[in-house]
Write a structure and sequence with these properties.
A hairpin with a 4-residue loop joins strand 5 and strand 6. The protein is built from five helices and twelve strands. It is mainly beta. It has a single domain, classed as outer membrane lipoprotein receptor (LolB), chain A.
Length: about 220
């Protein structure tokens, strides 16, 4: 999925929230044992948070550091902005992902390129669907308690789909707040997200959940009407 250091820099946002961080903020949970994730999602309508992101390879070497902002409106909408830190000037260009309920848009400002997929195909059994979906969480993921360590209560989400783009997501909670997410992909890479400041269930302007390709940008894919 991500084959080079530059590809990691440009693809981490998409991997983490598109196909692969961003959207289950899913409400439908069955009668299985409840986890901190269930409790969190059952009380969540909107979320606005800032975060740091660190990507490491299979040897544990850091290949990307970034900062970003995430806004979620359940069900199925989010806005994810990521700015890489360090490296060359082009690798620091901001990246933007928007799920508007019908489509998932990814904009790379440096390449002046927009990629679009329908939300139904792009967000199934992805880390994004953990936080912004509207289906049955356990239809897509196996949930298990991850114990308590590093001062957090952990939940492990493993996708049921064999072709999912990640092996597992580990979510860390402090009381009722989501503080960290650690994603592992099939290539041995790890994406760690630390959520800094968060506001839950505050109003979100509709304009934040929409995206229009900039004039002159190349658009790859066909959006749903």
């Amino acid at each position: 999925m991500i084959g080079s250091r530059r590809a990691v820099t440009r693809g981490s946002l998409v991997w983490a929230w598109g196909w692969g961080f961003l959207a289950c903020l899913a409400l439908g949970c069955n009668a299985q044992a409840q986890t901190p994730l269930d409790t969190y999602l059952n009380q969540l309508q909107t979320l606005r948070t800032e975060f740091t992101q660190v990507v490491t390879d299979g040897r544990g070497d850091v290949v990307q550091r970034a900062r970003g902002r995430l806004v979620i409106v359940r069900p199925g909408k989010f806005r994810w902005e990521l700015t890489p830190e360090g490296g060359s000037s082009d690798s620091q260009s901001p990246q933007l992902m928007v799920a508007d309920g019908k489509n998932l848009w990814f904009y790379d400002s440096d390449l002046e390129q927009v990629s679009v997929k329908t939300a139904a195909t792009a967000l199934t059994a992805t880390p994004a669907s953990l936080l912004s979906g509207d289906g049955d969480l356990r239809a897509l993921f196996r949930l298990s308690a991850g114990g308590r360590h590093d001062g957090f209560d952990w939940v492990v989400a493993t996708p049921k789909q064999a072709d999912a783009d990640f092996r597992e997501a580990r979510l860390a909670f402090s009381r009722t707040e989501l503080k960290r997410m650690v994603l592992k992909d099939k290539l041995g890479q790890t994406v760690r997200l630390d959520f800094l400041t968060s506001l839950r269930n505050e109003p979100v302007a509709a304009a934040e959940m929409t995206f229009t390709p900039p004039a002159g940008a190349d658009v790859i894919g066909t959006p749903a009407p």
